[in-house]
Amino acid sequence: MKTFSIGELATASGVATQTIRFYEQQGLMPAPRRTESNYRRYPHEALARLQFIMHAKQWGFTLEEVRELLLLQDANGDRAQAKRIAGEKLAKIREQIESLRRIEAVLAKTFAECSGTGSVAGCPIVEAIAEQS
User: Which residue blocks in the chain are alpha helix, DSSP H?
Assistant: First the structure.
């Protein structure tokens, strides 16, 4: 069975070797077997696991949420738990989208109101930001 060195795994996954080591320390990646020379050798499954972590992060999952999903996956756990985690993430994302829509509306309004010339004193953009603080 083909195994990867940490450098090969990093190249294949597009993830830095330091990140792979960090994921090992955090328990997201299982410790690889070591050669007699103490080099890490990762099984092919490590690439799929690393890609899962990266995709979950791209979807906005925190490392703790990724850990929960991986634990479920490792234990062939309950699908309801995965759905609960995803539902909580979906709710947070929807809240963030709504917040960004409000910010976009205020920024678009103040951007249109700002002349872009003269002193920053009285600038609608700066004033709107200051009011939010």
Answer: 6-13, 17-25, 44-58, 63-74, 79-113, 124-132
Evaluate if pTM is beyond 0.85: no
- 90 vs 11, 63, 87, 93, 101, CA distance in Å? 31, 16, 5, 5, 16
| Cβ pair 21, 7 in contact under 8 A | no
Distances in whole angstroms, Cα of residue 115 to Cα of each of 41, 47, 124: 61, 53, 9
Q: Classify 3 as helix, strand or coil.
A: strand
Are 79 and 93 spatial neighbours (Cβ–Cβ below 8 Å)?
no
The 10s digit of each residue's pLDDT in 78-106 is 999 999 999 999 999 999 999 999 999 99
Q: Which tokens hold the place of 124?
A: 């609608």
List, in order, residues 6 or more apart from 53 with CB less than 8 Å away.
Answer: 23, 28, 29, 66, 70
Please give the Cα distance from 127 to 120 (Å, whole number): 9
Distance between CA 93 and CA 81 in Å, rounded?
18
> Would you say 64 and 55 are in contact if contact means Cβ atoms under 8 Å apart?
no
